[in-house]
Amino acid sequence: QVQLVESGGGLVQPGGSLRLSCAASGFRLEHYAIGWFRQAPGKEHEGVLCISSGGTSTYYSKFAEGRFTISRDDVNNTVYLEMNALEPEDTAVYYCARLPWGTLLYDYWGLGTQVTVSS
Percentage of residues in the chain with pLDDT exceeding 70? Predict the structure, then answer.
């Protein structure tokens, strides 16, 4: 069955970096775009970044520009979110999701990985 599993979260100090992974199984990753989203306590779900099947990145939010990058490794069925210059405001659960070609709706989601930015 289709599965997306996030990993790489944890506790990091302000200014630090983390690389999150989204491991895909049950489908051919190369045919899908993958997006990263996050939800902080008491806040709404928000988009971070998306990468198309061809490797084009789209930023969903300005906070990610200049600090976050997304990449994909279709051979190893994994999408990465590289986060730099982290701030306490980046504390959230980060999720990856699958976007079928030709649609605007993400159809499968992972369970998320917690990122905490604190000194």
Answer: 100
